[in-house]
Design brief:
- By secondary structure, the chain is an alpha+beta fold.
- It has one domain (21-206).
- Helix content is 28%, strand content 22%.
- It is built from six helices and eight strands, in the order H-H-E-E-E-E-H-E-E-H-E-E-H-H.
- The protein has helices at residues 2-9, 20-32, 109-125, 158-162, 185-192, 196-206, and strands at 38-40, 51-58, 69-76, 97-104, 134-136, 149-153, 168-169, 173-183.
- Strands 1, 2, 3, 4, 5, 6, 7 and 8 form an eight-stranded mixed beta sheet that branches.
- Strand 7 (168-169) and strand 8 (173-183) form a beta hairpin.
- It starts with a helix and ends in a 15-residue tail after the last helix.
């Protein structure tokens, strides 16, 4: 166990009690049955540290392609800061602790910087984030994609949805993985309407929406 943690975090773990980050990473290693190809460490002096692990995956078994290589980017540290509960309390089945997942083709630095920023946003801006929630941006967050609203969903892959099920944080709060998507302005307008969330998911199904992010996809609306 500790050799793998040492490799991922770039330091020694000998003779020490595993940190929360190390315990989360171990759950990822066990749940995904693989080791990260690369880990993007946050600044050592960051007040809220969020590292990002990149697991290589061939998504071919989930698609019709013969070869479908990409990465599963997973944050490690977002759940160290519990999100504030909504005014009406945390909805049943949801949690104030989350880590983010983004399925991508490559390790473009823009993915890493945006994912780390998103992971720190709830604590910084004091809001609750769960499946179905959106974060609209004033301009496209990626230089090579015109979409500018982040949209979060429960991962459709069972191993990803359950990989942190054995890890809790303060007050035994469960950690919920959330998959990151980017949607168009028209899709954002739809999902804000009453019943729009289900309509957008139906459009995702009808258009075989790729879980691996495609910055060139066209809007479904």
């Amino acid at each position: 166990m500790f050799n793998r943690l040492k490799k991922a975090f770039g330091g020694s773990t000998a003779g020490t009690t595993p940190t929360r980050a190390q315990l989360r990473l171990q759950a990822m290693l066990d749940g995904l049955a693989s080791e990260p190809e690369q880990t993007f460490l946050d600044s050592a002096d960051a007040e809220h540290r969020v590292d990002i692990h990149a697991f290589r995956r061939n998504f071919a078994k989930y698609s019709e392609l013969a070869d479908d290589e990409g990465y599963v980017l997973v944050t490690n540290g977002m759940s160290d800061r519990l999100m504030p509960a909504p005014p009406g309390g945390v909805p049943e089945g949801m949690t104030r602790a989350a880590e983010l997942i983004w399925y991508v083709r490559d390790l473009n630095p823009e993915y890493i910087s945006n994912l780390r920023w998103l992971a720190k946003l709830p604590a910084f801006d004091s809001f609750f984030l769960a499946s179905g929630h959106r974060v609209p941006m004033p301009e496209p967050p990626l230089s090579y994609c015109g979409f500018q609203t982040f949209f979060f969903l429960t991962p459709i892959y069972r191993l990803d949805a359950r990989m942190l099920s054995g890890v809790t944080v303060d007050e035994d709060e469960a950690i919920a993985p959330l998959a990151v998507n980017l949607i168009s302005e028209a899709e954002y307008a739809l999902v804000k309407r009453e019943g729009g969330f289900g309509e957008l998911l139906d459009l995702f199904d009808a258009n075989d929406h790729p879980m691996v992010f495609d910055p060139q996809r066209t809007s479904y609306v």
